[in-house]
Amino acid sequence: MPIRNIIWDMGGTLIDTYPAVDRTFANVARAHDIDVPLDAIERSTRTTSIANTMTALAAEHSIERAEFERAYAALKTAWRASPPPVMAGAEAVIAAVQAAGGKNIIVTHRDRESAQALLDATGLDIDGLICAPDGHARKPDASMHRLALEMFGLDPAETIAIGDREIDATAALGLGVQPLHFDATGAASAADQDAASQDAAQVREISSLLDALEWIDRDSARVGMLATEPYLDSDPALLAERHRARRLAHQLDLLDPDDTDAATTLLQQLFGRLGDGTRIIPPFRCDYGPHIRFGAGSFVNFNCVFLDVAPITIGKRVLIGPGTQLLTAGHPLHVETRASGLEWGKPITIGDDVWLGGGVQVLGGVTIGAGTVVGSGSVVTKDLPAGVIAVGNPARVVREVPSEPDI
């Protein structure tokens, strides 16, 4: 079975945080006229954890642990403006997962505020974030990985977990998730690794996930569909995915309107990404779900239909009125070809702060720029620029959005 999803460790795997952390801790010791070899700090941060390294350095050199904590906090603040580099190849792997309809989930010991700040600063497009300080047991306990599988509806057989430490492999193995041990330096010997790490496939470069492991089924109907190639919707795998989407949508319909936690869980399983604070009012229907990605704080009113045979990307704080339809699907105009069942799709992209009025239809291949307003009942057949008001069938720009508050 091809792999569709990745559970990522964050620091040291997805983002190269270690060198800056190592230097920061060395500088704290140097301020006390203590020269701690950098390679000793490196071994500790990479084989235990940053927290354990602070504790060990404080005890060994009689330095208050709080000094290391303050220096580390200052480093995390500095990363908001000047983040550490993303590991080479990681962005391409993330994009490939999403292009195949999969999800990228981060499981980290880092607190949510600093983790989100790193994501914002690096621009990484991640589908979910689980942080131990939110009340979850730390790795090697499997709780966070189990939560990732349950919360985002990941099939363990279609999921890999990659991390740079033994605890990442240990957390994954017991759940039926294939662990990968990322060792960028190749320095970790068998003696340095526990049984879990030795059972994990070794990865020296993140980009090797694209080719060497051949974990994406590049010939599937889904991949061709998402690449806007003609496909047959009678493909058994696609039929199963559409059934899954209808089942989740039906469950959403049956929920008590006050049970927002259950609704969020279902929507996280249905969509490729559900931004924080985004709300969907049922009934809602879509073809597949994983190809729909929301930014934070968006709102979809009831009776909306999203045909996501191609990617639908919706930005932050987007308002979508009742009865709106986002229609990526297309069919041949030629009668015999259409009768053969062939169809295709073109992606739809909705920018941040867009407002689509009730009953709007957006056709495949359309991008709507940030801040634009589309009047109720309009049919959008071509791209609309940012910051305009458009109405009609086909929708045409009538003026710019107000530059001053209008209420």
TrEMBL record:
Q: Name one GO molecular function term.
A: acetyltransferase activity
Query: What SMART domains does this protein map onto?
Result: Mac
> Which InterPro entries does the record cross-reference, listed alphabetically?
HAD-like_sf, HAD-SF_hydro_IA, HAD_sf, Hexapep, Hexapep_transf_CS, Hexapeptide_acetyltransf, Mac_dom, PGP-like_dom2
Supply the SUPFAM superfamilies for this chain. HAD-like, Trimeric LpxA-like enzymes
UniProtKB keywords = Acyltransferase, Hydrolase, Repeat, Transferase
Which Pfam families does the record cross-reference, listed alphabetically?
Hexapep (PF00132), Hydrolase (PF00702), Mac (PF12464)
Q: What is this protein called?
A: HAD family hydrolase
Q: Where is the Maltose/galactoside acetyltransferase domain?
A: 222-276
Q: Where is the signal peptide?
A: none
Which family does the UniProt entry place this protein in?
Belongs to the transferase hexapeptide repeat family.
Question: Is this entry keyworded tRNA-binding?
Answer: no
